[in-house]
Specification:
The structure holds two protein chains of two kinds.
Chain A (H helix, E strand, L loop, with lengths): L4 H12 L4 H13 L1 H18 L10 H8 L12
Helix pairs in contact in A: 1-2, 1-3, 2-3
Chain B lengths: L2 H11 L3 H23 L2 H17 L10 H19 L29 H5 L2 H13 L2 H12 L4 H8 L3 H19 L3
Helix pairs in contact in B: 1-2, 2-3, 2-4, 2-7, 3-4, 4-8, 7-9, 8-9
The chains are: A mainly alpha, B mainly alpha.
Chain lengths: ~80, ~190
């Protein structure tokens, strides 16, 4: 039996934190009885965890100095009149 | 908006360059990270992040304070990264064969043992796999995923940064998550 598309939609609503309570209840009930959707949901949650835990890189220590050195010396100003 | 940022922006608009150094210090990590996740390369990320800050400085008079300054900055950095992506040639795909290893794919080179996401993510290989999976995303999904999960921004902020309706942002996040699941969900 093919599960309705809305089940997957609810999973995403849940992951976005804006699932309505009725849908959340229905989603939970469905997941308890459907190993396939349950697997889908778990792999989505795992994917999110992987992305969120991606290591946080920092720019080189001279980054700010380099930006400041490249700024135009004087800001362009709109001249009025002559 | 944050008083610190507001004061600095006023000073910069009056021509005080030093005030800008404080703004760069404040946002450099986030802007660099955004560019790195979009472009997948430290050198290009550094160039793009520098360019984003320079553009923001040059165009500071066009900044509209009804928008968060960080959102404006992220918008510049995202657009710059997308421009750079479009100039790059398409990369190899994750499931493509690795040269010189008949029948071996990038996946089969990864350690097969099961571990929790927190343990597994420690490994450098996984870090690379995650980044590769992000790079396989079409740019319109990549930008929303990076803003949501790497920069930890709300749907509302993402909608403001990309100038897209919230509904579109949500659809793209959903599709992006599904696409990433295909690469990462089995690990």
């Amino acid at each position: 039996m093919k599960c309705p598309d809305k089940i997957i939609e609810w999973m995403h609503d849940y992951l976005d934190g804006d699932i309505v309570p009725d849908h959340e209840k229905a989603l939970r009930e469905h997941l308890q009885h459907c190993p396939e959707c349950s697997h889908h949901f778990n792999s989505l949650k795992k994917t999110v965890a992987f992305i969120q835990h991606a290591s946080h890189l920092a720019p080189p220590s001279d980054f700010t100095k380099n930006v400041m050195a490249k700024l135009p010396k004087e800001k362009k100003r709109v001249r009025i009149g002559r | 908006m944050d008083m610190f940022v507001k004061k600095r922006i006023k000073a910069i608009q009056k021509g005080d360059q030093n005030a800008y150094a404080e703004i760069v210090e404040l946002y450099k990590d986030k802007v660099y990270r955004l560019c790195y996740r979009m472009l997948g390369n430290r050198h290009e990320a550094e160039d793009a992040a520098q360019e984003a800050f320079i553009r923001a400085y040059v165009n500071i008079d066009t900044y509209n304070p009804t928008m968060k300054f960080s959102s404006w900055l992220y918008r510049i950095a995202t657009n710059l990264s997308i421009d750079k992506l479009r100039k790059k040639k398409p990369d190899v795909y994750l499931d493509e064969e690795v040269r010189g290893t008949e029948g071996l794919t990038v996946y089969s080179q990864l350690p097969a043992k099961e571990a929790s996401p927190e343990d597994t993510v420690e490994s450098l290989e996984l870090q690379e796999t995650v980044q590769q999976a992000i790079e396989k995303l079409p740019e319109k999904y990549r930008s929303v995923i990076v803003l949501k999960y790497i920069e930890d921004l709300s749907l509302q902020e993402i909608s403001e940064i990309l100038d897209l309706p919230i509904g579109t942002v949500k659809t793209r996040i959903h599709r992006g998550r599904e696409a990433l699941r295909k690469h990462l969900g089995h690990l």
